[in-house]
Design goal:
five-stranded mixed beta barrel, 42% strand, globular
Length: 148
């Protein structure tokens, strides 16, 4: 049942001056230090910061084998301010340790269109890729989004 819910969430998110610069640099360094820690899979809630973008991927039936008949999936992706490490969940065959994660696919029932191209902070639960619709090894089930 949990796998069906996660798949449903994923499908819902994929559809066919100098002082200022110094301050911004300090904020970026602070965010990098914040994200340098190890992250954990669900049920723990994670907070991640980065740029929200949309990316196209090949979908069913052949996932790029036949570009004339395969569908395209437009998926929300978060490009992180700094790469993170996600630690294995020994209770799940899907949630393996992954180092230097820089991009995370988003699964969300929240409308994300207003945030495309913007720097955002997301709260949610990390989970490992399970299907052909998952295009990064680690995904985030979004609970909350705020523009930075």
């Amino acid at each position: 049942m949990k796998k069906l819910i996660v798949l449903g969430l994923l499908l819902a998110s994929c559809s066919s001056g100098e002082n200022g610069e110094e301050s911004q640099s300090a904020q970026t360094d602070s965010l990098k230090n914040e994200q340098a820690q190890a992250y954990h899979y669900e049920p723990e809630t994670s907070t991640l910061t980065g740029k929200l973008e949309m990316e196209n991927f090949w979908g069913p039936p052949g996932y790029g084998e036949d570009t004339l008949t395969d569908m395209k999936e437009n998926c929300a992706m978060l490009t992180l301010d700094a790469p993170i490490d996600v630690l294995a969940d020994t209770s799940s065959e899907f949630n393996e340790s992954v180092n230097d994660v820089g991009v995370i696919q988003l699964a969300s029932t929240i409308k994300l269109n207003a945030y495309i191209g913007k720097h955002v902070t997301l709260k949610g639960k990390l989970f490992g890729a399970q299907t052909g619709h998952h295009h990064t090894p680690v995904l985030l089930d979004v609970i909350n989004i705020e523009e930075r």
